[in-house]
């Protein structure tokens, strides 16, 4: 049994969440300033073509995420979670900072979008090892009874990063003229990534390795060196085929989580501007407010998943998206500020059902020796195929059909697939992670767990 110190858990969760917030500030800024980037890097007389090109570069980063997961995931299972999380932070900050230095299309021609694509690929590659590592890190530190609550702070950090990116873009849009924004203003959010990356790296370098991984290392140094060497050489085949059922469940859960996430937080600002001709600043302010509400609800939903279970919370989210996506989008399409706020708010609260539970649910699908690798691979395959391509696919579908209700239909389809995955998965709330002993906060709690187990054994 592992007794984790509350102070150590708090520091680990805070550092992982803060680092994640900084990474997703970098990644999210691209979404919120997509319309401006389309004009800078993809000059065209057709606004839809500009937006498609910009989101095409956005989606390209997701195509290399599985490669990043295949590299960083096994590396995290081999050399440790903390070292890999520090490396992903460096690469993400560098890729984002370089975007702010790229000359415009007017200056160097086709070289500008090519350099943008390269920087986005670096971002995507590094992010391939981020979520799986951060969620694994928190899950392996957290006591069994609080894993949902503590894991919810990871997505709290993600929302904080998105709010930071959205707030900065909104401020710039309000204060700068269109010419200033196009000529130099758009670079500011990307250049901020440099100092933020240094702060994030400092936070992650101060982290200690997780108890679950440290236990494997201790076993390897004492009496199980042969088994350790076998575990160290776990390959991609075992991480995927050896965990095929858990991998499929992971893909299904991540699909509904990320399609709805990217639809609401990344695509909707551009949808309001390009499709509904809504004022850009007001659209960003609405999304900013929705994310602030989600942040407030996030820890409570995580605690509810510890009390009632992960499956009921996620099932409620799937049912909600299936039934309410069309009414919510119809509200948004009414165009008034109140209607948009109500529609976006409803979708945001449903999304919390996933953001609050996924960081604790997904690591519990896999055993310790392959957790980082299998989770990173499954997560990034699903994100690349379905989540990251959401803005591009929905924009293309609207352009092809003329049906502006496509976002609702897309979310409903994702909810059906996610609901099937939730139905097939096992409940993991308040249970030890596979391959790890029970984790508790105090020695008194450990003694109580042992006493209860002995009583159950005697009764049986």
Give an overview in words:
The protein is mostly helical. The protein is built from 24 helices and two strands. Strands 1-2 form a two-stranded parallel ribbon. The longest helix is centred in the middle third of the chain and has 31 residues, at 244-274.
List keywords for this structure.
single chain, two-stranded parallel sheet, mainly alpha, 460 residues
Give me the side-by-side strand order of the main sheet.
Answer: 1-2
How many β-strand stretches?
2
How would a textbook summarize the main sheet? 2 strands, parallel
Please provide the ordered H/E string of secondary-structure elements.
Answer: EHHHHHHHHHHHHHHHHHHHHHHHEH
Number of helices: 24
| Rounded radius of gyration (Å) | 22 Å
Q: On the 0-100 scale, what is the average pLDDT?
A: 83
Shape: globular
Helix content: over 70%
What is the straight-line distance between the termini?
Answer: 22 Å
Instruction: Give the helix/strand class.
Output: mainly alpha
Q: What fraction of residues sit in β-strands?
A: under 5%
Low-confidence stretches: none
């Amino acid at each position: 049994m592992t007794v984790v110190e509350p102070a150590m858990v708090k520091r680990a969760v805070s550092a992982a969440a803060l680092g994640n917030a900084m990474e997703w500030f970098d990644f999210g800024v691209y979404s919120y300033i997509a319309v401006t980037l389309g004009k800078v890097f993809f000059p065209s007389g057709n606004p839809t073509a500009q937006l498609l090109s910009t989101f095409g570069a956005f989606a390209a980063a997701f195509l290399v995420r599985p490669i990043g997961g295949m590299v960083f995931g096994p590396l995290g299972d081999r050399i440790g979670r903390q070292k890999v999380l520090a490396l992903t932070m460096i690469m993400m900050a560098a890729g984002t900072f370089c975007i702010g230095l790229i000359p415009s299309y007017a200056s160097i021609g086709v070289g500008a979008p090519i350099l943008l694509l390269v920087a986005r690929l670096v971002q995507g590659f590094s992010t391939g090892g981020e979520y799986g590592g951060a969620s694994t890190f928190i899950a392996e530190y957290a006591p069994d009874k609080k894993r949902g609550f503590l894991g919810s702070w990871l997505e709290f950090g993600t929302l904080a990063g998105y709010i930071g990116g959205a707030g900065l873009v909104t401020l710039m849009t309000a204060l700068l003229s269109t010419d200033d924004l196009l000529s130099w203003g758009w670079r500011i959010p990307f250049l901020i990534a440099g100092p933020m990356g240094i702060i994030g790296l400092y936070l992650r370098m101060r982290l200690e390795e997780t108890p679950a991984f440290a236990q494997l290392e201790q076993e390897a140094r004492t009496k199980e060196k042969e088994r350790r060497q076998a575990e160290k050489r776990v390959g991609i085949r075992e991480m995927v085929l050896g965990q095929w059922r858990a991998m499929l469940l992971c893909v299904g859960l991540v699909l509904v989580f990320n399609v709805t996430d990217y639809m609401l937080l990344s695509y909707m600002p551009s949808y309001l501007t390009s499709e509904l001709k809504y004022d850009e600043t007001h659209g960003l302010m609405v999304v900013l407010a929705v994310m602030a509400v989600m942040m407030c609800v996030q820890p409570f939903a995580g605690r509810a998943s510890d009390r009632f279970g992960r499956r009921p919370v996620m099932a409620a989210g799937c049912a909600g998206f299936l039934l309410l996506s069309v009414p919510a989008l119809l509200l948004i399409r009414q165009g008034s500020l109140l209607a948009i706020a109500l529609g976006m708010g409803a979708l945001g609260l449903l999304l919390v059902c996933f953001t609050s539970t996924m960081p604790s649910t997904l690591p519990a699908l896999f055993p310790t020796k392959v957790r980082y690798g299998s989770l990173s691979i499954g997560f990034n395959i699903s994100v690349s195929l379905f989540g990251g391509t959401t803005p591009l696919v929905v924009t293309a579908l609207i352009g092809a059909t003329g049906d502006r209700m496509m976002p609702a239909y897309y979310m409903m389809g994702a909810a059906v697939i996610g609901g099937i995955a939730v139905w097939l998965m096992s409940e993991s709330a308040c249970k030890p992670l596979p391959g790890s002993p029970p984790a508790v906060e105090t020695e008194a709690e450990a003694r109580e767990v042992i006493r209860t187990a002995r009583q159950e054994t005697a009764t049986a």
